[in-house]
Amino acid sequence: MTIQDIIQVDVRNSCLVTGILGPFDLTEAEERIMKQLTNYTGANQAGLFAIQQSDHIDTRILAAGGSASHTIPAEARFVIFTSAINGVDSTGDFWVKVDGVAAVPIGDIIDGSSSEYKPVVRFIGKSTTIGLKSATGAIVGMAFYK
């Protein structure tokens, strides 16, 4: 599948939602149980990198050295992470391991098994949990999409 298959532009409709499954109208998209991660066509027919607010957003508050195992909603296939420390900025550090236990590294990890530091958008497929860990404490937001 090429990027052209994924991002389609339809000049007939200035509010067309496009995605991997093809075009559908906004009304249909809003009626879904969980919103799809999609791009929108703007008034000038240019593709925009803007998405709807998720209808399933979870937050985990991690203390310094704290960890959590978060259950992924059954329909979710993508997650967008945000973070804060003291609730005011995006400097809260956190590590993520999808379908595993996250760990803050204390040395080199060169076998591919490390947790990931502050990911932004991830495809989670049919994973069931997200492991979270923070050395300094963080508020971690997770917006889920189908």
Word description of this protein:
By secondary structure, the chain is mainly beta. The chain has 2 helices and 11 strands, in the order H-E-H-E-E-E-E-E-E-E-E-E-E. The strands form 3 sheets. Strands 4-11-6-9 form a 4-stranded antiparallel β-sheet, with no helix packed on it. The chain has a 4-stranded antiparallel β-sheet with strand order 5-10-7-8, with no helix packed on it. A 3-stranded antiparallel β-sheet has the order 1-2-3, with no helix packed on it. A hairpin with a 5-residue loop joins strand 2 and strand 3. The two termini are 18 Å apart.
Short descriptors:
Jelly Rolls; four-stranded antiparallel β-sheet; disordered N terminus; 2 helices; single chain; mainly beta; 11 strands; 146 residues
Q: Helices and strands: which structural class?
A: mainly beta
Level-2 CATH architecture of the largest domain: Sandwich
CATH topology of the largest domain: Jelly Rolls
Describe the largest sheet.
4 strands, antiparallel
What overall geometry do the principal axes of the alpha carbons give?
A: globular
Mean pLDDT: 78
Strand proportion, as a percent range, falls in 25-35%
Question: What is Rg?
Answer: 18 Å
Strand order of the largest sheet: 4-11-6-9
- The CATH class of the largest domain turns out to be Mainly Beta
Head-to-tail CA distance between termini: 18 Å
Tally of individual helices: 2
The helicity comes to: under 10%
